[in-house]
């Protein structure tokens, strides 16, 4: 089973993805958008949130869901440090001595950590062992029809300190000013989850953990998405720049084999997704789950999980 | 294409022969595909952004500025890529897959490119084609440039020859491909196949 989710959310004055600091100026991540003006292509920069940033948030949600369900999470991942058994030093925490059989290495990692099972890993030593992530996430980009209204605007802030005149040395200042570039946009992004990949070897060795635990791991993966979206716990600087707004639209599709919702950056994405699903049903006799809302996103996510429960998938 | 196709087959293998020279399991379906190419709607723009690379490693900080040119094609218009897969009926019949499996897999292509961006397939068409010899043709699809004369604009790029194997690219041969901007006129000893209004070389 393959889950694909399209999310639209409004975020005003957010600092969800900052990229670099030049002096006292912290920049928001931006991407170029091509627009046509008098028959010529012009590049405009719009605020964006990287897929890496969203993926980190998702995996952090997954840590909490997995631990809450008594599923294994390794020491590194439990701290939110997703090293993913990248070298001997990190893999040794899971198995010591390290075997030279890639299948044994893979099995050890999958058994000991749900995050690396779902989020993939790369052990970059001899023998190298890799596993693709079972979930995929796009960048969050301003939706096309309103992209030109998306802005990134620096906000001036000041930090004050009371200083003893005697203690004042040279050019130490009592006031420090700094700028945080904030973005405002209606964003869209896509999230996919290949449920069949969970708990199963990517080296052709079949299921690595018992069927019952695979179902539990799938459930944790779904709940993690639920919680990440519902709590808006993704991106950075949430403590002072929590975005004003929220999810405006959410579309969830579950199909037997891979199928990706039309990107929510297009205004017609719901209609287009529905039409494409009809083809899948007609031509390939494949059942599917589809639901979409601009009201209560939690309700749609709940229904999707219920559908998968009925199918015996979680 | 390999990812959704192997998903349909219930095969979760993504790395073949992990011990010796690891290859992608896409290599399993490579012999079934005679040729593949693509066309691009609109004009991608190549631009170079200046990136500051900072690397922190256990206390020592390295910093460098680099220019990172890349093609951009997102923005106001709805840019699309059209992928074309040329399949050989006889080979497919002899394989564990059917043409229908390939058709469903095409709907399931979820990632594309070297960094595997998330995409959605908006339509799939299936047709029969006949290979013909020609000396002159117009095409919008990318083709190997060697031995051909081209009239029109496009981008020339050295790419990995996927027909030699997928996954182990360190020693792979490079072929020179021409990516047309709109349609171009090509002269040479051509093998072409009709696809609707245009041809594929
Ligand atoms: Zn881990």
TrEMBL record, chain A:
Note the Pfam families from the entry. Answer: DevR (PF01905)
- GO BP terms: defense response to virus
Q: Which domain of life is it from?
A: Archaea
| Organism of provenance | Thermococcus aggregans
Task: Name the UniProt key words of this record, in alphabetical order.
Answer: Antiviral defense
Task: Please name the InterPro entries in this protein's record.
Answer: Cas7/Cst2/DevR_sub_I-a/Apern (IPR002764), CRISPR-assoc_Cas7/Cst2/DevR (IPR010154), CRISPR-Cas7/Cst2/DevR (IPR052681)
Tell me if Ribonucleoprotein is a UniProt keyword of this record. Answer: no
- What is the protein name given in its UniProt record? Type I-A CRISPR-associated protein Cas7/Csa2
Q: Does the keyword Membrane apply?
A: no
Q: Which residues form a coiled coil?
A: none
Name of the coding gene: cas7a
Q: What does this protein do?
A: CRISPR (clustered regularly interspaced short palindromic repeat) is an adaptive immune system that provides protection against mobile genetic elements (viruses, transposable elements and conjugative plasmids). CRISPR clusters contain spacers, sequences complementary to antecedent mobile elements, and target invading nucleic acids. CRISPR clusters are transcribed and processed into CRISPR RNA (crRNA).
UniProtKB/TrEMBL annotation, chain B:
Q: Which InterPro entries match?
A: CRISPR-assoc_prot_Cas5a-typ, CRISPR_Cas5_sf
Q: Highest taxon of the source?
A: Archaea
Against NCBIfam families, the record matches this protein to:
cas_cas5a (TIGR01874)
This one is known as Type I-A CRISPR-associated protein Cas5a
Q: Which organism is it from?
A: Thermococcus aggregans
